[in-house]
Amino acid sequence: MQIHVGERREGDVLTLRVLEGVCESVLMEVLKAEGIEIVVGPIANGSARLEVRAPKRMLVLVEKALLGPPEIDSG
Questions:
Q1: Is residue 53 within 8 Å of residue 41, measured between CB atoms?
Q2: For residues 9 and 67, is the Cβ–Cβ distance under 8 A?
Q3: Strands (E), the chain
Q4: Which residues are bridge partners to 44 per DSSP?
Q5: Which InterPro entries match (predicted)?
Q6: Cβ neighbourhood burial of 73 (10 Å; 0-12, 13-18, 19+)
Q7: In the sheet that 47-54 helps form, which strands lie side by side, from edge to edge?
């Protein structure tokens, strides 16, 4: 089992996606047998600790959002 831990604030979004080229039948077998666990830890000051546990056979990539407001292309 691999574990990824992070903190999220109210309204943040956690997205699980399947990468291109992944064999869907193998993925479904792993999900049925082992699953993915998402544990919500203590919530304090509008922030919660999240722990994502996934089977070692799965590749889990963590994509971090840029801080600050999104840039708007006005041109």
A1: no
A2: no
A3: 2-9, 37-44, 47-54
A4: 47
A5: CsrA_sf
A6: exposed
A7: 2-9, 47-54, 37-44
Which residue type does 68 have?
A: G
Asked whether the predicted pLDDT for residue 29 surpasses 90, the reply is yes
Segments making up each domain of the chain, as ranges: 1-12+21-37+48-64
Q: pLDDT digit string (tens) for 42-72?
A: 888 889 999 999 998 888 877 766 555 656 6
- Residue indicated by tokens 């082992």: 34
Helical residues (DSSP H) of 1-75, grouped into ranges: 24-33
Can you read off the two tokens belonging to residue 38?
A: 């998402």
Write down the pTM of the prediction.
Answer: 0.68
What is the DSSP code (8-state) at residue 68? S
Instruction: Report the pLDDT averaged over residues 27-54.
Output: 91
pLDDT tens digits, residue range 6-18? 888 888 888 888 8
